[in-house]
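ARCHIVE ENTRY
Sequence with per-residue tokens
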Amino acid sequence: MRLRDLLFVTGTIESTDQLTKRMRRIRISCPPQQWAPGQHIRLSVDGLLTRRTYSIWDGDDDGLQLCVLDHGEGPGSRWARNATPGQHVVFTKPEGKLTPREAPYHLFAGEETAAVAFAPMLRFLNGAAVHAILEVDTPEDRLPIEGVTWQYREGRPAASSKTLLNAVQSLDLPAEPGIAYLAGEAQTIQSLKRHLLTDRSWPRRNILTKPFWTPTKKGLE
């Protein structure tokens, strides 16, 4: 077996559809992949050296589904806009530690970039005690996810979002800490984490974070 076959998976785009004005779902047929809700793949968007990280929206024995947010003119956004059925793709095997844990209840908080990772986690936790807040720009940006309280920026920046922080601060949570899954823009995640640590006295081990982006840095997942 070649080294490439050990490190990468080759698949074929089966279909695409537009879930929102900025979010495109891409179905990839490929050999069955073992994955846990919340994990991601690293997909080659412009040759093997240019990869972008995408959370898995769903998957079965026939392949995986991604939902790719259009950020503008970056290589990942261009790849998603131009993705067509029959096109071959290469990606790494599913990985990542942002996965559901055992807990008395679960807190989810994030924005558009977190929504795709959160969706399969919420499906997996169906029936568990969950508090889930997702922030998007407008109601038209909502993804089909059950059990979520939606917040809207209405044109305000997603970085250091006060909208999301205020929503989490207003939650009536039990005194006993649960498990928090915080994902999305890095500065916003830090403010949410500080709130849980300082205002609610949660242990650090109960807070899982996944910074996907921030305006001042490149290379975040």
